[in-house]
Amino acid sequence: MVVEIPVPTMVRSIAEAKAHFSAIVDEASSGKTFIICRAGRPLVTVTQYIRPEVVRRPGSLKGKIRMADDFDALPEGFEEAFG
After folding, report:
1. Interior CA angle at 11 toward 10 and 12, to 5°?
2. Domain of 13, in residue numbers
3. pTM (predicted TM-score)
4. Beta strand 33-38 with 9-13: parallel, antiparallel or unpaired?
5. 15 falls in which pLDDT band (50, 70, 90)?
6. Which end of the chain is flanked by fewer CB atoms within 10 Å, N or C?
7. Is residue 28 a contact partner of residue 47, using CB atoms and an 8 Å limit?
């Protein structure tokens, strides 16, 4: 069973959104939803971005990365240049 929780939605004109953009972003980041309208017609919705959870799999690149045998060797002249 899915239960939808109503989120307060605020309707703003483009002029209002432009004048108060920072405040709208701050409020949207706390969970409010805004609908931006032009001539009374809804155009876009501004909502909080929820980052998708990435499942990290340790060892997923095993065997795909190779280090050169001379990886730790300093190039010729390097020691003289940096003392």
Report:
1. 120
2. 1-39
3. 0.55
4. parallel
5. very high
6. N
7. yes
